Amino acid sequence: MTARAFAGVPEQVPAARVWALGCLPAGCPRAVDVALVTSELVTNAVLHSLSGVPGGAFTVQVEVTAAAVEVSVIDQGPRPVPARREAGASGWGLADIVACLADAYEATLTPAGRVAWCRLDWAASSATPADGMETVR
Prior knowledge:
The chain has 137 residues and is an alpha+beta fold.
C-alpha cells in the first residue's frame, strides 16, 4: 500500500488524483474510474470534513492487487455543522459517482476521523459490449 498526505484545500484535488494514477500499473484498465473516484472522495473530504478547515489535511492510500485497486481517503472527521450546498451547486455526489463505479464502497468513522474506501475490480472493465455496441480502440 502506498499513502500520501495532502493539505485540505480544493487545489489539492487534482494533485491527489494525479498521484493516485501514478500508483497504477501501466495500462490499468480502470484508470479513468480510479481518477473519478479519487477526485470524488478527496473533494468530499475537503468540502465536508474537518480536513477542509484551515490547517486541515487528508491522506490518500492506494493498494494495487492482481485483481483490483483499492482507494482510501482518510479525513479528519465530519464537520460539526455540515457544509451548505448552494442551489445549483455542481457535483454528482459521493453516492452517485462512487456507488456507480466501485465494486465495493465503505465509509467508516474512526476515533481520528473518517475513512472512505472503495475497490475497483479489473474484471468490471473487461465485460463484453452490449449488443449493438462497438468497442472503441
